[in-house]
Specification:
The chain is an alpha/beta fold. It has one domain: 3-Layer(aba) Sandwich (Rossmann fold), CATH 3.40.50.1820. It has six helices and ten strands. Strands 1-2-4-3-5-6-7-8 form an eight-stranded mixed beta sheet, with helices on both faces. Strands 9-10 form a two-stranded antiparallel sheet. The longest helix is centred in the C-terminal third of the chain and has 18 residues. The protein is globular and about 45 Å long.
Length: 237
C-alpha cells in the first residue's frame, strides 16, 4: 500500500495552522484525527497518521498551536499548552472547527470520524467527547484526565478508550478513579486499559526521563497500539 501525504493549511480567527493528511489510496475512508502532545504537531504525530493510513484509514495529524509553532523545552511546551488547559471552551471550539474541516476533505468519509491523542492530545480528545462531539469515538493515549468544567450535562456520544500507564505521575490513581466515576455517571461507553510498571509518554521512544516521569515502554507501546486498532475496527465496522 502506497501511503500519500499532503499538507492542509487552514485559518482559525485569522491565524494559520497546518495539518498533515495521510491516505492509503485517495478514496473516502474513515478519518482519524491525531492530536499532538504539548510540544506541538511534530513528526511523531505525522508518523502516527501514516500508520493509521497503513491500517486503511485516513489519518490527519492536526495542529492546535499554529503553522510551524513547536516548543523546544519544558518551559516552552508548558507555555504553549497551558492556555488550552485553562480555557477548555477555547479548546473545544478549536477542535470543533478542525473536525468540520476534516469532514470536508475528499479522502474522508464525513460520517466516520474518530480522534486519538497523545499526552496533551489525550486531554484534547477527551475534552471533545465530554462536550458531546458527534464523532464515533476517541482514544486517549497517556493522556490527562482532568475534568474540563465546561460541559455540564452534555451527552457523551463518542465511545471512549483510555490507554494509561499506571505509574504516570501526571495522571495518578485518584485522577483515574475520578475519571471512571465521571464516565459511568455520564452513561458513556468507556474502556480503560492500564499498564503496570509504565510511566507517562510510554509510546515515545525519545522519552527517557524517570525523574520527570516520562519513560518509553516498548511493551505498553505495542499493547496500546493493538488495543487502539481493535477499538477503531469496532467503531467503523
Amino acid at each position: 500500500m502506497a501511503i500519500t501525504t499532503r499538507s492542509i493549511d487552514y485559518k482559525i480567527d485569522g491565524k494559520t495552522y497546518e495539518a498533515v493528511l495521510a491516505s492509503p489510496d485517495g478514496s473516502a475512508r474513515p478519518g482519524v484525527l491525531v492530536c499532538h502532545a504539548w510540544a506541538g504537531r511534530s513528526d511523531f504525530e505525522i508518523d502516527k497518521a501514516k500508520a493509521l493510513a497503513a491500517l486503511g484509514y485516513t489519518g490527519i495529524a492536526i495542529d492546535l498551536y499554529g503553522k510551524g509553532v513547536l516548543g523546544s523545552s519544558t518551559e516552552e511546551n508548558q507555555a504553549l499548552m497551558t492556555p488550552f488547559v485553562e480555557d477548555r471552551e477555547m479548546l473545544r471550539a478549536r477542535l470543533s472547527a478542525i473536525i468540520e474541516l476534516v469532514k470536508q476533505q475528499p479522502e474522508v468519509d464525513a460520517t466516520k470520524i474518530a480522534a486519538i491523542g497523545f499526552c496533551f492530545g489525550g486531554l484534547c480528545v477527551l475534552n471533545i467527547a465530554r462536550a458531546g462531539a458527534d464523532i464515533k469515538g476517541v482514544v486517549s493515549i497517556h493522556g490527562l484526565f482532568g475534568k474540563p468544567g465546561n460541559s455540564p450535562g452534555a451527552t457523551i456520544k463518542a465511545k471512549i478508550l483510555a490507554l494509561h500507564g499506571w505509574d504516570d505521575p501526571m495522571a495518578p490513581p485518584d485522577d483515574v478513579v475520578a475519571f471512571t466515576k465521571e464516565m459511568t455517571e455520564a452513561g458513556a461507553d468507556w474502556q480503560l486499559h492500564a499498564y503496570g510498571g509504565t510511566m507517562h509518554a510510554f509510546t515515545n521512544p525519545e522519552a527517557n526521563d524517570p525523574s520527570h516521569g516520562t519513560v518509553y515502554n516498548a511493551n505498553a507501546d505495542r499493547r496500546s497500539w493493538a488495543a487502539m486498532t481493535n477499538f477503531l475496527e469496532e467503531l467503523f465496522a
